[in-house]
Request: fold
Amino acid sequence: MALSQLFPGFTRRFIQTDDAVATACLVGGTGSPILLLHGHPQTSAMWHRVAPVLARQHSVVMADLRGYGDSGKPQGLPDHSNYTKRRMAHDQLRLMSELGFESFAVLAHDRGARVAHRLAMDAPTRVQRLVMLDVAPTLAMYEGTGEAFARGYWHWFAYIQPGESPERFIRDNPSYIDEFMGARSAGLAPFDTVALSEYRRCVALPGAAHGICEDYRATAGLDLAMDRGDREAGIKLQPPAMVLWGEQGVVHQCFDPLLEWQRVASDVVGECMPCGHYIAEEAPEALLERIAPFFA
Reply:
């Protein structure tokens, strides 16, 4: 019911990946396709102020990443390889092929933007254009870690720990969504109550805490190795890219996002936005104003 309230006219679909993990998605609109990918600890519901507008000109697909939302949450492998950004990117390639879209644009936030980065690196001919929200490249953020970043993104280091303690921290905290999202610069004020209810529902689903932690564990290991391999081989992001970040966010405080993306991408533009981390919900009009001509 919550999703139908947020996305009237969109259709709910579940697409099986080749390792039998279902990808949940919402599909609506007509025109050139755009894939929307969410971040942690959210779901596709985060696009409710953006997707209906994009759907006036585009076919919009919003996917829940594996481990999140209503998508499958498999047990992590010992090396966490079934939660790498490459594996998640492959889920999205399979999803878009099943929906009949062999090439498409991508709009992605936070963890979804890291998936989008790998997606565009691995399948550059399928990604037409790419917009990434409030991220610097993963490798740059780990290598540039200082006290301010470690304090702001403490979960990057907490969730990669072995054992069940990270999962219990998420699973056993009924206020997890409110505490985590409310701790950012804008508090909980920007968030629609229906969307918040959806985030709370999904983080409490069986396997969700494990999926979240496996996402971060994979990033701290195999994902970093892939990024280093790209750098050593001189391989850069090829599709035209735009990066937007919030002036009140930790990424802006600790990094120069455009400079960092220019180091790994062949064609990238970007700017700071008048908001915090959750751009699509804090400043949807400003976001649409910038991405509409880019995707057109």
The longest strand covers residues 22-29.
